[in-house]
Design a protein that fits this description.
With about 290 residues, this protein is mainly alpha-helical. It has one domain: ABC transporter involved in vitamin B12 uptake, BtuC (Orthogonal Bundle), CATH 1.10.3470. Helices cover about 75% and strands about 5% of the residues. The protein contains 11 helices and 2 strands. It has a two-stranded antiparallel ribbon. Helix 2 packs antiparallel against helix 3 and helix 5 crosses helix 6. The longest helix has 30 residues.
């Protein structure tokens, strides 16, 4: 029964990580920017929702407003940082350092405003336990995380493949030079990508703290795992990033049956090394 419980917990964690992975992949595939500050946007969404709930805003409304704030933050980072560095033709290393600096600023501002202590949502329903049969239990927060994550995954797939803007973004990602001469306006597409990705990553940024609470520096580990999932799944593949995030989370959880919890993160790096050695292109074809 312990294995089944760990399996269910892995699905919950994997779905949340999958949303981080697909949103990060969406940015990287299109802009070729290693958007480390994505972890800061992830964290910001949770704190905005927590602050609004504290002031009596219904949870659904708090999530919606948090998404709006994250979209604005993503647009600000793209237009005032990445776009400016691109115009100056800065190297990828400079852009990465700038993104790391942005993440550090966001984390420290959040810590200064909200304190670095763990904060929890005052929502009694979130911690109520649902019995799924046998000794398997999940909280309503965990179940909501799975539902919202799957909806975000399906929504991003639909957006990328079924909408005109999504197809334009995929065209820009496929051939930036051709997109430029055919007036698809890559810079505008990059702005849209950052806004969409920031909206998507806000969702796990709110759902996960329902169960574990908020801390200013908690976004880095999910982003690291999501990055490995993106590489293992195939850079450019939304489905691959999501599936591999779930697989990695399951392996991390099931490894607790055999090794101490502090070593489970080693599973993630082991997967990364294996894929870099034997399958550097990932499991899935790009664009799916």
């Amino acid at each position: 029964m312990l294995a089944l419980q760990l399996l269910c917990n892995g699905i919950v964690t994997g779905c949340a990580l999958g949303v981080v992975a697909i949103s990060f992949s969406f940015v990287y595939t299109t802009t070729k920017i290693f958007h480390v500050a994505h972890a800061g946007v992830y964290t910001l969404g949770g704190y905005i929702a927590w602050w609004l709930v504290k002031r009596g805003v219904p949870f659904v409304g708090a999530v919606a407003l948090a998404v709006v704030v994250c979209v604005a933050m993503g647009a600000l980072i793209q237009s005032q940082l990445y776009a400016q560095l691109e115009r100056r033709r800065e190297t990828h290393l400079v852009v990465l350092i700038a993104s790391l600096g942005t993440l550090a600023v966001m984390q420290n501002v959040i810590a200064a405003v909200f304190t670095p202590n763990i904060l929890r949502f005052d929502l009694p329903w979130a911690s109520q336990v649902v019995h799924l049969g046998g000794n398997v239990r999940l909280t309503w927060a965990q179940m909501l995380t799975v539902v919202v994550s799957l909806a975000a995954f399906a929504g991003l797939l639909w957006f990328a493949h079924r909408t005109l803007l999504g197809k334009r973004i995929r065209a820009v990602a496929s051939n930036p030079f051709l997109a430029e001469i055919t007036r698809l306006e890559p810079r505008t597409a990059h702005l849209y990508v950052m806004m969409v990705a920031s909206a998507v990553v806000c969702l796990p940024g709110v759902m996960v703290p329902l169960d574990f609470g908020l801390q200013p520096y908690n976004g880095v580990t999910p982003l690291l795992t999501a990055t490995i999932a993106m590489i293992a799944g195939g850079v450019g593949s939304i489905t691959g990033a999501f599936v591999m995030a779930v697989v990695i989370a399951e392996l991390q959880n099931l490894s607790l049956l055999f090794i101490p919890g502090e070593w489970s993160i080693g599973i993630t790096f082991f997967i990364f090394v294996i894929f870099m050695l034997f399958r550097p292109t990932g499991l899935f074809a790009a664009g799916r």
